[in-house]
Design a protein that fits this description.
The protein has 256 residues and is mainly alpha-helical. It has 9 helices and no strands.
């Protein structure tokens, strides 16, 4: 096994462990929002804007070469549309969970996040939709540990660190939606999905254009999954911590 593959295996193991350990970090369950969650969200967003989005420009070149004739105009924006799709998909999943929780709590469906958070969990049907979607999301991240534009150990470690913090933010949100069901079952599914994605990456290699599409979807998903946790006013998020994480990690990425 190559040095890159060994580093990716270590990264996949750490990412899986994050899912198993995060629900045990009770100090994150506070209001106002924990500074550590806001800091982690800032790091995740910085990685997307400083590293992943520039990769989309390179990926677009590979996708553009596949386009001919009538689809050429569409292909010029292909990866950016996929990023938009990633954002929309995870926004829809979050709204579905909030609506289900409001209904189960007997609150107004249009009441928003605060009423949902004071109510019940989202129910088993929404739980399995969430787990299926986030399992694919995690498998994608596991696959990209091995198959990214740079293909070097250093950038891999920066990617893994940003995704580890992103998983902490995601896990906190999923635990709020699904409560004990996520802690008993969901976190194990998502941990296994990362390792499965890594295993697929060892045996399957897709085209550079398709890797670009995967990165685009991931970028849109990360942006939405972080901002939906930070932006709502009832979260009482820590802007200074978010800005520190975002600015500090952006500066680090630009310096390397």
């Amino acid at each position: 096994m190559s040095g890159l593959a060994l580093a990716a295996l270590l990264a996949a193991t750490v990412l899986a462990a994050v899912h198993l350990l995060t629900p045990k970090l009770r100090f994150l369950d506070v209001t106002p929002r924990s500074i550590w969650l806001s800091l982690a969200g800032g790091v995740s967003v910085a990685y997307v804007f400083v590293h992943l989005l520039p990769e989309l420009a390179q990926a677009q070149e590979h996708v553009g070469k596949l386009a001919q004739g009538a689809v050429e105009l569409f292909a010029e924006r292909h990866v950016y549309l996929v990023a938009l799709l990633g954002l929309a998909v995870f926004y829809g999943l979050d709204r579905m969970a909030l609506t289900a929780r409001s209904r189960r709590a007997g609150a107004s469906v249009g009441g928003g996040r605060q009423e949902a958070e004071e109510g019940a969990d989202a129910g088993p049907a929404v739980f399995w939709v969430h787990m299926g979607s986030f399992a694919l999301y995690n498998a994608l991240i596991g696959y990209l540990l091995l198959h990214r534009e740079d293909g070097a150990v250093g950038p891999l470690l920066f990617f893994a660190f940003a995704m580890a913090l992103h998983f902490i933010v995601n896990d906190h949100g999923l635990a709020e939606h699904h409560k004990s069901l996520y802690r008993r079952v969901g976190r194990w599914i998502l941990a296994a999905a990362v390792l499965l994605g890594f295993a697929v990456g060892l045996t399957v290699e897709v085209s550079e254009a398709f890797v670009g599409v995967l990165i685009a979807f991931l970028a849109g998903g990360v942006i939405l999954n972080v901002l939906k946790e930070e932006v709502p006013s009832e979260r009482q998020s820590r802007f200074c911590a978010f800005a520190l994480g975002m600015g500090g990690y952006a500066a680090l990425l630009l310096a390397i």
